[in-house]
# Entry
Amino acid sequence: MFNLVAGIASVVGVAISIWTLIVATGAQRAAREAREAVRKGNAAEEFQDLSRIADEFLSHIEADQVPAALVRARDLMSAISLASRRWGRFLSVEGRNNFEEAYAQVSIISRSLSANGAPSTPQQKDKMLKICHGVIRAMSNETGTLFSELEESEET
Amino acid sequence: MATFEYLPVISKLLEKTKERKIEWKGTYESAAFICALEGEYSFEIQKGKTSSGNSYRRLTMKDREQGEVFVAFAVYPTSTSSRENDDLFATLDQLFEQARRTALDVDKKVSDVSNILDKI
# Structure
């Protein structure tokens, strides 16, 4: 009789241990997913900030404010480089390419503003503004993608 | 490392560009084109003139941290320029032209114009 009780207790003990392990693993995974979601949220906010800086850069070009545009260009290039290095794992290959290209586009505009000042013809200004819009669009797309992924993961 | 030692990589970039496997993009400067590879590296090919009026081609490769991996620079061949310079110029010049054709979608536009002219 004693052996039977001991046997049952042993089986129950093993079952409890397994259940505890499953719960602990699940909790660990949930905690990891929560941490990852927080990081993704931070990345999305930083990308949103890039769009804001790019928008300011465009506004300064629109107003022919070259010194202010140059400062914003430097801020933007530095922020793109940092964001790409820090949050690159949340970006697709296409997203990372977009960041690389955005950096190069801003760098070339900055080079031209430094050397030649504000665009001298409406056509040149239009071309510069179109490129700036492209940079803002690239940053906004990545922000949108990340926020959308976050919302999807919250719903599931 | 001397610039001509990057020639094999530059030649490979040229071949892939000719095969239209690399998406070059136009920039604000009409004589500069850019492309990004796998989100890790970027290239800028540029055409210009030196202060002494010599035509040059420059290719810059950067990594994700925007560090310059290499700059390949060559001036238009002259009787005094080196063989390495002349070979590099020929390759960079072809790369510039192919990048321009890709970025501006030249082939399609020329074909469109040809079709329009046929109809006139």
